[in-house]
Amino acid sequence: GHMNVLLCEADVPYELLYEMDAINDDFAKADAVLVIGANDVMNPAARDAEGTPIYGMPVLNVDQAPEVIICNFDLKPGYAGVENPLYSREGVFMMLGDAKESLAEIMKQME
């Protein structure tokens, strides 16, 4: 919903986007995943944290990748207020602060 609007505003061509059902199984086959500014939509607690606002919500299976890089402003819970156990998992690298700056650093390291 709102992410499609944000991506459109950022001039991301719609044909480059994938529906969750079409891409979700690919995370387990990836070497690494880069996540920019997300919490609830990738919170694995949605699968088993009964009684929380996100329980049963479909989420991106980024936790199935062996390495995850998350660019997020902070470690606070998302809109739903549910702690994300992915933030403290081994193999997860948190880049806190402004995502634009974090991505610039990643790009600099890749040069």
Overall description:
By secondary structure, this protein is an alpha/beta fold. The chain has one domain (2-110): TPP-binding domain (Rossmann fold), CATH 3.40.50. The protein is built from three helices and three strands. It has a three-stranded parallel beta sheet with strand order 1-2-3, with helices on one face. The chain is globular, with a radius of gyration of 14 Å. 17% of the residues are buried. The model has no long low-confidence stretch (mean pLDDT 91).
Please provide a brief summary of the model.
This protein is α/β, with parallel strands linked by helices and 111 residues long.
Pick out its properties.
3 helices; 111 residues; 22% helix; alpha/beta; single chain; Rossmann fold; 3-stranded parallel beta sheet
